[in-house]
Amino acid sequence: MSESKKTLGRREFTVASALAVLSGVTITISSCGGGGSTPSTPSTPQPTPNPTPTPATGDKVASIGGNHGHNAVITAAELTAGAAITVQLTTGQGHTHSVDITSAEIMMIAANQRVSKESTSDGGHTHSVTFN
């Protein structure tokens, strides 16, 4: 069984590292080796979802329909402020999405009411993002 390697950009690495730290995952960084092995034809791996972040007290983590590695969080500070925000979904399979949340919706989410929104389109698709 061959091991598939993926190169991350600085932003993707930073986001993945932050999420890993929040979830207690250990990160191993490996450099390119000088081994003389012949590269094998990579198989198409199933997407590995980003770990669900461990929210701080009062944060709200979204459920994302049709998900393939995205996460979305509204922080307790954003909920307390009550202002409209744009929530960025973490990178999943090389692309991101965002969701605009109105101040009225922020108040509903803070009151533990369900709010579902459609994300922006990227990679030819959107996601249903639900906070409750």
Quick overview of this protein structure:
The protein is an alpha+beta fold.
Q: What do these coordinates show?
A:
- The chain has 132 residues and is of the alpha+beta class.
- It has one domain.
- Helix content is 21%, strand content 17%.
- The protein has three helices and seven strands.
- It has a three-stranded antiparallel sheet. Strands 1-3 form a two-stranded antiparallel ribbon. Strands 4-5 form a two-stranded antiparallel ribbon.
- The N and C termini lie far apart (41 Å).
Helix content: 10-25%
* Broad structural category: alpha+beta
Which residue ranges are poorly predicted, with pLDDT under 50 across at least 5 consecutive positions?
25-38
Number of helices, counting only DSSP H or I runs of 4 residues or more? 3
Characterize the main sheet: 3 strands, antiparallel
- The geometry reads as globular
- How many extended strands? 7
Measure the end-to-end span. Answer: 41 Å
Q: On the 0-100 scale, what is the average pLDDT?
A: 77
Rg from alpha-carbon coordinates: 18 Å
Strands side by side in the biggest sheet: 2-7-6
Beta content: 15-25%
Quaternary status: single chain
> What letter string, H or E per element, gives the SSE order?
HEEEHEEHEE
